[in-house]
Amino acid sequence: MNSSAKPRNARLAALISCGLLATILGGPVLAANPNPCAPKNPCAAKAGNPCAAKNPCAAKNPCAAGAKIDPKQVVRPAGYKPYQGDKAALLADGERLFKDTKLSTNGMSCNTCHQGDNAYQASFAKPYPHAVQMAKESVGLKQIHLDEMVQLCMVKPMATQPLPWNSKELASLVAYVGEVQKGFKPGAAKANPCAAKNPCAAKKQ
Ligand code: HEC
Description:
binds heme C, Cytochrome Bc1 Complex, Chain D, domain 2, mainly alpha, globular, disordered N terminus
């Protein structure tokens, strides 16, 4: 070891420990800050939801991914021809896809959030197209069709690309969710809104 190495090493050590300190301090300090994702938090969809502020997985909040979504990603393209197929087959396929975590890039499936009709708001009971808060906030759309809503949940909470518009996958999910909608009653979701809507909590199951 030569003599000039010492101070350099010492400085390095200081820098490293400083970095460590910042990391240690940074954790709680950052966590204490108001959640920047709160308005987009799926839990926050219902005003006054107590779990919005306490969500321990705020950092992993899939709805926090990115700013505004380009309407081109979720609005039906010109000349759109949905895939046509046997209704029963599409329904079965849709139910399977709804639970398929491979559809997303963040380990979630549609079912992670929507099991037992969770996360659906009162708007889901209305015939499509209709206004949906998420569509208004993140895409600026006044109203949305069901297939577009599936695409929006693909892009935003599932953090991935929209499905090809003429795909069997999209038609299947639309058929399945359309069927779910028929039996949907606003407010009938499970009692504890935090446990069910918190995507991290759901993952631990
Ligand atoms: C991380 C949670 C999350 C995941 C995963 C998720 N969604 Fe959603 N979804 C929501 C939230 C939150 C809403 C309510 C949005 C609102 O009302 O503003 C919603 C609303 C909906 C609605 C109803 C909108 C309405 O009121 O008409 C449909 C349909 C839907 N999602 C389909 C899907 C499908 C299909 C998937 C999988 C491809 C999926 N979602 C994945 C969080 C999620």
